[in-house]
Each structure stands twice: as C-alpha cells, then as structure tokens.
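Subject: for your reference before the review

Hello V.,

The reviewers asked for a structural picture of the protein, and I figured it would be easier to keep everything in one thread rather than splitting it across files. Below is the amino acid sequence we used in the manuscript, unchanged from the supplementary table.
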Amino acid sequence: MEDILEPELVWVDGRCYRCCDSSAWCQENELQSYVEEAYEPDYGSNDEESCDASIEIVPVRGDRLEHRFYVNSNFYRFIIGSKGATLKRLETDTNTVITVPRQGQNGDIIITGANRRDIFSARTRIDLLIETSRSKLEFTHFISIPANFDEVKGNFKKFKDDILENCGIGARGIQEEIFQKPEKLHLTIIMLVLLDEEDRTKAVEALNTCKTDIVMPILNKNGPIEVEYRGVEIMNDDPREVEILYIKVHDESGCLQQISNKIADYFIDEGLTRRQYDRVKLHMTAMNTHFLLDETQEYQKRGTFDASYVLETHENTYFGKALLTEIHLSLKHSKSVKNGYYLASSKIVFDD
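And here is what came back from the structure prediction:
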C-alpha cells in the first residue's frame, strides 16, 4: 500500500506533480481516476499569458485555436484508453477536442479549443500521462559497464562448467541456457525506454554530459577506479527458489557507486526513465531464468532454480579485476558482430 503522505512525484517540463493514487495509472487501457485540477499549475482564472510560450498555438476556423505536437505511437493507447474513455475525459475536463492518429499511424496529436488556457491544460495533462505511462512500456536500452574482459570471461566459464558438471543434473532448474553469455557480462546502471530518434539523441547527449560533469571530475580527483568481481549472491530469501544470481562487485574507493548513482539521477532528471530504487545496486548477472524466455515474453512469469550448491561452493569465488574504462548506452536484445557484446548507441571512454 502506498503512503499517501509521500505520494509519487512526476516531473513534466520542470514542474512537479503529486500523484496521490498512482494505482490509477496502472491500468493499461483505462485510467480509473485522473489528474485532478489541484495537480495542475495555478495560472489564475484569466491569466492566459502565464501559459508556456514555447507551446505554439495558432488560430484556425474563426475564433478557434489549435496546437499540434508529436507523440510516439506507443503512447496512443494510454491517451485513448479503453473504448476511448480516457480521451473523452481529457476533452471534457479541458473543454477541448483532441485528435489522435489512428492505430498503426504516426503523426501529430491535435488539440483544438476556444482559448490558450484550455489548450495548455490539455497539453499538460497529456504530457503527464505520457510520463506516467512510460514505466509500463518495455525497456529498450540501458546504461552499462562492460565486464567482458579475458580474465573475467575465463573464470566465468570455469564457474559455469563447475556448476553444470557437479550440480546441473541434481539441482532443480539449472541448465546451460540460464547462464549469461561470457561476452555479455556487464553491470547495469539504469534501464531506459527510448522510443524514437528524439529519445535516443537526448540519451546520447545525457551520457556525454555525464562524462564531463560527473565521471571525469571524480576520476581526476581520485584516479583510476579498479573493480573486483568476487563472490555470488541472490536478492531473495530462499536459495531454492531463485530467479537471478549475481556476481558481487567490489570497489574499495566507493567511486563506482558514486558515479552510478549520479548517472542514474541525471537520466531520471532528464525524463529518460523513472526512479525504481533509491540507489544503484552494483551487480553482474551470472544466471537468470529470464534468459529462457524469448524477446516477446518480457513480462511472463519467470521460473526459478535451486541455487543452494552455487551459493555454498562459490561464495567467494574470484572472477577478476578490471579498471573502469567505458560506459555504454546499450541496445537491449542486440549483439555486436565484433565482440558479441551489446550494440552501443553511444559510449564514453576514460582511458585516453
């Protein structure tokens, strides 16, 4: 149950909105309640000049006004809702007519109204709806730190061979397919939903800004960051019912944690993803039952495996050490022909 004294905060165009009942946003096709008038900025009853001047509103058909703007087609279903209920309420609440492109088509959403305040109110509500709906879409990219170094890959293969040889038959759920590919070993800083070229361009710019404003100042002050991969852990209580097993990440300086947290915060502030945790959990996935699902089964229930032997035998297994040299904007479900790692939409390098 959510704490009504600490409601979810959603940022849209520099303004903060408190959503006291975020469950209202969790229906894929219909919003059971909507953003009340109290959540909107207070412009004053007749103060149209306070509306955002960057939003272009032009006169059409006599005394009517119109505003057009692009929205990725993945969000249409959230704006329209089941049987058009969400769209109808939007129009009623804001005294506007809102035209959304047909399913399967891309184009501008058109808001038509009698005054600027009504049109801006509709635009603000749609922007807020898009931001809260983004979390229901499948992740497309992630910020990663490659860990596919020769030493780490070699020790990971030994780890895998030992488990398959000594407990693969006797331990429930353990099979080769749930192991990470050695060439794809990595740390994940944050997951992203990037739906179009505008999103991807913004993410690339954000990553470059992170290098200049976050990473380099920390490296210049503290020197190179050495990361050690040693030991394994799970994030649930029962070792016999495990979905994911991780390799532990050790950084004595604490700088990697600091960098990861700051990068995650920056991407959240830029509206490219939403906050899931207070801080980044540094880990490297070694075994994951999700690997048994194909790419179209993103949200199906995962199976589990018995990790008792793995936890007991490899509690302190050493996998390797490596300097932090690169951070990637990685494309999910991809593979580089060159080295087998994820394709990078962009990367920043620190060893020069």
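For the response letter, the relevant points are probably these. The longest helix spans residues 197-222. The two ends are 49 Å apart (CA to CA).

Happy to draft the paragraph if you're swamped.

O.
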